[in-house]
Structures are given as structure tokens and as C-alpha cells.
Amino acid sequence: MHVVIVGLGLIGGSLARDLRRAGHTVTACGRDAARLAPAREQGLVDAVAEDWDSALAAAELVVLGVPVGALRETYVRIRPHVSAGTVVTDVGSTKGSVVRDIAAACGGHLPAHFVPGHPIAGTEHSGFAASVEGLFAGRRVVLTPTADTDPAAVERVSDLWRQVGAQVLTMTPQAHDAALALTSHLPQMLSYTLMGQFAEAGDGALAQLIGSGFRGMTRLAGSDPVLWRDVALANRAQLSLALHRYLERLGELAAAIDAGDEARLGKLFAAVQDAHRRLPPA
Ligand code: NAP
To answer: pTM of this prediction?
Structure first.
């Protein structure tokens, strides 16, 4: 299959590597073709498009690998140039906003050829230099088709993700956003906040006293600020609910600590340790 990836970053670049290994032809479209030349030289892609329009016309599948805040504009840019029968999908971390943005650009309905998607795989690094082979192996990819989506388009996208080792799930955009607010977007915000508190303390000597726990908890704070600004805004209703519930729980914890409530702390920590033990293996 001929796949065009618009936005050859961490996710787009990693997908390109695996798709080429699976025998597909991959063309990259970026805002600056010259900057993507190394991707061609390193064999990540078959071609880097100088002319987006003719590359898009030849595509059977187009993957939009851009930040969620840029999806609408990117879709509007590519839409007139994709052929009938070409399927378009995205990899954005939020899904309600993507469905709304793309539908709004198309007179209120999600076009039948557009399959909203989100691979639950990634790292705190960005750009195609950070892309890796095998990023999606054993990972889940959530697709959130709507009543307007062509089932054959969903199948084409599902098949592609399965070929790179992922397990495909479908759910509504709302269910996706509520779940990911807790499992992905909230941890990101907590990591930023903890790192911010450390930076505020501003004491160079503190850096000598960092252990693996602090490193682990703040790893996500090294992520791209634009990407996460977009995600926080795009999923703000669900993220806000998750943040406020977290604040309540933190308040309960602070109250138990302030009161020196040994029994309450012991019970709370034992309950979460038990929940942690029941997590499925990574
Ligand atoms: P990334 O490494 O920064 O790559 C995004 C690419 O999009 C860039 O290389 C850039 O390519 C292009 N781009 C950036 N800003 C743009 C703009 N304003 N307009 C048009 N193109 C733009 O980001 P990523 O981590 O791969 O994330 C891409 C998408 O995957 C995002 O929607 C994100 O929510 C989602 N996602 C990320 C992760 C993760 O862990 N990072 C996981 C799952 C899903 P050019 O400069 O060549 O145009």
C-alpha cells in the first residue's frame, strides 16, 4: 500500500519505519522538505514530497501525524488533493476535539473516509530523530469511528496497525477522552507540576539528591510543550474533572498527614498498593 505520512515526527517516523519493514511504500510530507532529507537518506521513508499535492493524489492511506491543534488546518490543506477511495486517519492524543474539528471543516459531518485514531504508545521525545522501530508492537491503538465513518475505511486502518504489531480497539471519542484523561493526560500534568515545584525550589544542591523515583515521576516533564498544551486544551473538560478529583484525593492525603493519622495513612497506602499489584503487566 502507498502510505503518505503528514508530520514525520516521533509517531509518524516510527510508523514509517515499521510500515516500510512490512513492505509498504511510505512518502513523507512536512512543512520543510529539505529538513526531512535525512529521513530519506536514513531509509525511514521511500520519498520526501517536494510537491504535497501529487504525493497525496497517489496515496491509498494518509496518516496525519501532526499535533492535535494543527489537525484541522492540516486536513483542510490535504483534503482537495486526496483521491476518491483514499482513507485518512490521525494519531492525535485526543479524539472528541479531532472529530469536532474535522466535522466542522466539512459542514458538520465527519467525512466517511476519515478514521480518528490514537496509538497508545510513545515517549517523552519528539521529532523524527527520536522515532524508533517497533514502537507499536504489543500496544493498543484506539479508533473512534462515528456513524458517518465508512466501515471499510476502519478496516483498512485497523489492518495497517495490526501489521505493525498493535492491537486495535474501537470506542466512542467521549469514552476515549474520559479514559485517557486519567491514564495519560493527568499523569502528564502531575509530572509537569512536580518538576515545576522542584524548579521553584531553585536550589542547585537539590539536584544532587535526586533518586530514580523523582526521575521516573518527572520523565514526562521532558515532553514537547506545544504537543501537551494542545492536548490539555483539546481535552479540557475531561482533564479538568480528573484534575479536580485528584485535588480532592490530595487534600484527603494532606489532611491525614497534617493530623498524623497513622491508621488512615496505612489504610490508604495499603489500598493503592493492592490496586497497583492488580495492574496488568506492561
Ligand atoms: P512530533 O514528534 O513533534 O511530530 C509532529 C510533527 O508534526 C512534526 O515533526 C512536524 O513536522 C509536524 N508539525 C508540528 N507542528 C505542526 C503544525 N503547527 N502544523 C503542521 N505540522 C506540524 O510529535 P509526536 O509526538 O509524533 O506527536 C504527533 C501526534 O501524535 C500528536 O497529535 C500527538 O498528540 C500524538 N501522539 C503522541 C504521542 C507521544 O508520546 N508523543 C503518543 C501518541 C499520540 P514538520 O516540521 O516536518 O512539518
So the answer is: 0.95
